[in-house]
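Comment thread on ticket #2218

A.B. wrote:
> Attaching the input chain for the structure job we discussed in standup.
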Amino acid sequence: MESFRLMCNDAIRIGLAADASALKRLSKLTYGELGRYEVLSYYKLCAISKAAGILAAMKKSIRRGFPTKTPYLSKPVLVSCYGFKIEDGSLLVPLGGHRFERIQLNPHTLDALSHPGAQVHSFTLTDRSLSICISKQVKEMQQVEGVMGIDRNLRNVTVGNAEEVTYYDVSKIVEIAETARSIIRSFRRNDVRVRRQLARKYGQRRQERLRQILNRVSKNLVMEARRNGQAIAFE
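C.D. wrote:
> Ran it. Output below, let me know if you need it in another format.
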């Protein structure tokens, strides 16, 4: 993961110097310099691809007028769409020389992979998490019976049409965010490193709680639209 991070940063540095963000051009400029890393070749290609995405996002922010900093990948990570396997409930990450690192998958992931037509495309590995990108066949709705309109507000989500309107109370999101901010502001330690560590801890906790609430609401909306044969329209 550390080698992948360094390769990605090298590709970003070269891309900035040459003003290159297209994958093909960045690959031509970068691949030879990444030869000093003793890793499998497809990890180099994935590092260049990730760097190209970061550079493209930076250019898009500049075009839209947002202030940007020089991009830099600070945490070890490994992204790959080649060479890995899933066997006996585990992800096998290739290390070279016919060696693999075995990572046991949890029941939720195994259940998602067991769906008919599910195909695994890539994985992202950090020191704390593993994300797997999959695609699967979705049954297309043959006939739409109506439209469900969604209005997103700060404290509620309003859903409905001319016949019925439903309100989902999400005011808890505001309370969680305000509570996290007040806790972080209350830190009085002189050591800025300790304050940053505690702020990161409470920030991650806040994000996980907000994600849980929003995922629950969005899942209910999709299930209701599917059950009633309705399309979804956002404001």
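A.B. wrote:
> Thanks. Noting for the ticket: Helices lie at 2-18, 23-30, 41-63, 107-113, 171-185, 192-228.
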